[in-house]
Amino acid sequence: MGGKGKSRALNLGIQQVDSEVIAVYDADNTPDPKALHYLVASLISDKELGGVIGKFRTVNKNRNLLTRFINIETLSFQSMLQAGRWQLHKIATLPGTNFVMWKWLIDELNGWDEEALTEDSELSIRIYELGYKIKFLPYAITYEQEPEKWSVWIKQRVRWVRGNNYVLAKFLKEIPNFKNKRLRFDLLYTLAVYYIFFVAVVISDILFLLSLFNIIHIPLPGPYSAVWIIAIGLFMLEIMLAISFDQEDNWKNFGLVLIMYFTYCQLWIYVMLKAFYLENIKKAAHVWDKTVRFEVHPDKQTVRE
């Protein structure tokens, strides 16, 4: 049995659709009134497009420290990766929500892969291999809920890692045969983020801790302290520039980005290790874990049962 869950629901839902264009939104989303109009107008204006995706914002960003971190992360991701890849390579990846596609294209691709936990990433590759593009449209905005508890966040991110591992395993051997050469780079980039970057972060943390407690000494000359400080500064400036496009570049977020460097970002190690354990040691089934959502009210939020 595979992930089923959302991909299965999408495959069942599209069987009931007879329109030329389909739109996908998660149940917790609240799109801007003109978001769907912008997406569809862009799709029908360019015959090379197989889909158009919008931007998502965090509706509960001020709920607690975690949601503030997630808000900064998601805005950075969309500005640097979605918008950046679209501008440089004309490549963007389907998100889980706020996008439109041609129904005939979904039919031709035989729907969503029900074994995939990240069905959006998997489908994106097949769309490009068929010769179509996915455009990023930043002014088509929807507001969505993000996890408010660390346990929920970890479960969600572990599912993402396992889902992308599935996508890598499915398409890695096919990279040399990809028709879209830029897509080759994009998949290799995903491989770098999930493995090469992970190894680099772990080694860096280990060396830092060993040096901090004088367990080891690096004999090579060099201004290592200055380089480390500059690296943190560049990280912060990069994030602040990315979130400035959404007018989120304030002093409060500047402080949060600094805290994220030493806390939130380091949790990537735990998420990767847990995903590795579930995938390769426990051999856990690819079961879709639904993310806990919350009822949003003006003054309070309660868990939706």
Topology overview:
Blueprint: H1 5-14, E1 21-24, E2 30-31, H2 35-44, E3 49-58, H3 65-89, E4 99-102, H4 103-108, H5 119-129, E5 133-144, H6 150-171, H7 181-212, H8 224-244, H9 251-262, H10 267-281, E6 294-296, E7 301-303
Parallel strand pairs: 3-5
Antiparallel strand pairs: 1-4, 2-5, 3-4, 6-7
Helix pairs in contact: 3-8, 6-7, 6-10, 8-9
How many β strands by DSSP?
A: 7
**Biggest sheet features:** 5 strands, mixed
- The structural domain count equals 1
Global outline: globular
**Which fold does the CATH topology refer to?**
Spore Coat Polysaccharide Biosynthesis Protein SpsA, Chain A
Helix-strand pattern: HEEHEHEHHEHHHHHEE
Mean pLDDT: 88
CATH class: Alpha Beta
Oligomer: single chain
The radius of gyration over CA amounts to: 20 Å
Percent strand equals: 5-15%
How much helix is in the residues? 40-55%
What separation lies between the terminal Cα atoms? 26 Å
Helical segment count = 10
* CATH architecture heading: Alpha-Beta Complex
Low-confidence stretches: 298-305
Q: Strand order, biggest sheet?
A: 1-4-3-5-2
Structure characterization notes:
It is a single chain. With 305 residues, the chain is of the alpha+beta class. The protein has a single domain, classed as Spore Coat Polysaccharide Biosynthesis Protein SpsA, Chain A. The chain has helices spanning 5-14, 35-44, 65-89, 103-108, 119-129, 150-171, 181-212, 224-244, 251-262, 267-281, and strands at 21-24, 30-31, 49-58, 99-102, 133-144, 294-296, 301-303. It has a five-stranded mixed beta sheet with strand order 1-4-3-5-2, with helices on both faces. Helix 8 (224-244) crosses helix 9 (251-262). The protein is globular, with a radius of gyration of 20 Å. The protein starts with a helix and ends with a strand. The model is unreliable at 298-305 (pLDDT under 50).
